[in-house]
Amino acid sequence: MKRMYLLAALALLIAGTGLSAQNTLPKAMTTYEAGTYPSETNVLRAEYPRVDPVSRKAYFKFLLPLAHTVTVTIGNDEYKGTKDIDGVWTIETAPLVVGFHYYFVNVDGARLTDPNSNSYFGYTANAGGIEVPEGPEGDYYRFNKDVPHGQIRSLNYYSEINGTYRHVNVYVPASYEQGKKRYPVLYLLHGMGENENGWVNQGYVNFILDNLIASGEAVEMIVVVMSGDIRTTPTIRTVPGKTVSDIYVNELVPFIDKTFRTLADREHRAMAGLSRGGSQTTATVLTNHNIDKFAWMATLSGLGGVNKDNVATIFDGAFADPAAFNRQMRLFHISWGTEEGARFPGSVDALRAQGINCVTYISEGTAHEWLTWRRGFRDLATKLFRK
Amino acid sequence: MKRMYLLAALALLIAGTGLSAQNTLPKAMTTYEAGTYPSETNVLRAEYPRVDPVSRKAYFKFLLPLAHTVTVTIGNDEYKGTKDIDGVWTIETAPLVVGFHYYFVNVDGARLTDPNSNSYFGYTANAGGIEVPEGPEGDYYRFNKDVPHGQIRSLNYYSEINGTYRHVNVYVPASYEQGKKRYPVLYLLHGMGENENGWVNQGYVNFILDNLIASGEAVEMIVVVMSGDIRTTPTIRTVPGKTVSDIYVNELVPFIDKTFRTLADREHRAMAGLSRGGSQTTATVLTNHNIDKFAWMATLSGLGGVNKDNVATIFDGAFADPAAFNRQMRLFHISWGTEEGARFPGSVDALRAQGINCVTYISEGTAHEWLTWRRGFRDLATKLFRK
Fold first, then answer.
1. Which CATH number among 2.40.30.10, 1.10.3720.10, 3.30.450.40, 3.40.50.1820 corresponds to the domain A139-383?
2. What are the helix (H) ranges across B136-259?
3. What is the pTM of this model?
4. C-alpha to C-alpha distance for A169 and A192, rounded to whole angstroms
5. pLDDT tens-digit readout, B166-185
6. Which of B11, B39, B108 shows the shortest C-beta gap to A64?
7. Cβ neighbours of B7 in A, within 8 Å
8. Domain A2-133 class, CATH top level
9. How distant is the Cα of A190 from the closest Cα of chain B, in angstroms?
């Protein structure tokens, strides 16, 4: 027990200085599992968490000699840790799906964040992230030094509806900076508990588009990656009676069209979103009757709940007249993962029985997670703004 | 004790669902200290940490019934928590300096991060942040809806020296997007344990420049906010024998001059950095003999160790011939806070005794912290690139 308190004092010292003290750490902290390496999402020089690219397992270690239980939560799964004599907790996961996962470390039941991971905003929290690497099949979302690169523009604009400024990320393709061309625009939304940085930080939307544009598989486009939430400040806590749809249509679209060289008509404007962002997309374009502003639409794991009984009335009757819908909507792209259950394919069946044209993409072996959305976005990007 | 375990189980449930469960939280978690409000650095809808704008104290709460000690570290200060009967730990700080501070939560000696705070990279870790508000005197670093706004461009470029890609943030002023003008460029570095996002996320360099440019107090300029570290990946852990100075001068400057409408000569190129970034600035411009590429230079809490005995030899003799130095260097700006001790004013005394021209700015009442650097940057920005 004395040893444990000494180690706790040591850990305090390390925490207090903010310095790395690898040489004085317990052996388990510097004994790495064979075949593993630090997750690419780690902060500079952090050895843990580590991943095994073959087994696809992740390993976490925390020096917490006094803790009763230490677990790691990844999605719906909680992995229990075991403690050694030095107070080092080791957590080994089951094989994970390749791609990105949020995680939290739970100490005696309290959800906390690992300072050794870069931060990813998920579950309305500052979460850690782990990336289980794909082989070359993942190259489409990786930086490629041999292709031209676009930019992410980070902007703030004042929103009268929100009562404060809002932050937005805008991808512009490589040719934008030097040229004079105008481009079509995709408005792209994150899921519940995430924010406008997700499609960049863990979705790699910029790398996916750089690669697809270079290979000619996608049309050059601007992508506006926006927030699906109402921004709060110390004085602005909620904005009752206003919707994010109003912000997009009345404020954000005009701001983007004023600021960038866009093709500012419905034929060159798309909206898409993942999970709750898919619901916000159908709410904005269909329920709130903005189909005159968006001729292309997509949901990524975001269109559940359509069935034969409600297909003619849902979204304020947007599908009541299939011929009219099909004439106006140039692309209705619907994607999901095979491990997400029946609600997405069920919705598509109901749409097709109603005569609604839609294009689907199904990600093999993935659930409600970022690999589903990277893949879905890739497929969507190849089909947007085609003649 | 039973009550504690029940609460721990409840906390696990909350963590597991990722949902807010305010109504079922212990009373202390929803009983807010009078006159306090959530820090503006909190994640969406998080009630803690809170700040009292009058006393300038911060308040933290964590539900950790089984923990032995819970503390919050802010800089060099560690604040102890007290636990109530429900297992809620409350931490009250001493009065803090206004401005931004990193923090960690330490549970039984282990340094962890609060998921309720936005993430700020400091101490080579994903840290929490708290902002103690200034009154109107802080308006210079706040978003102002009545002035034009520049953009932060987020780019990745391939570095042969680093062997992988590197991320860089580039501020361009509001006029850049629509115009044809060319601009002078400031290269700006963060401190040790921070990264290239710090000057944007907590330095507010974009808002400071938007405001100063709008009022005519600063010349329009591009600011390249770069990393002072060698990027590591699972396969690239260190790059021996190479320096970040080489990356700046041989790779980054040419990349920026190729990508942006810059005025690509020494008369329109400056370098500055805070803390270790100041050392990297003097190393790059002076020790590594790149004064032919930078005519303007600044250190923010970053020039210690110059004295009468070494002033003629330090930085490979850059100050040996004061007349030559003064002729070449258009501005040598040196800033620090009054609470940082004697090393910075001591260095300036030695420089001036040697006949070196320098301009100083001293931040009243602040230490080695971001308010010192926001203020120092503001003063610097008003003096850069003047005829």
1. 3.40.50.1820
2. 198-201, 205-214, 244-246, 253-259
3. 0.93
4. 18
5. 999 999 999 998 889 999 99
6. B108
7. 109
8. mainly beta
9. 15
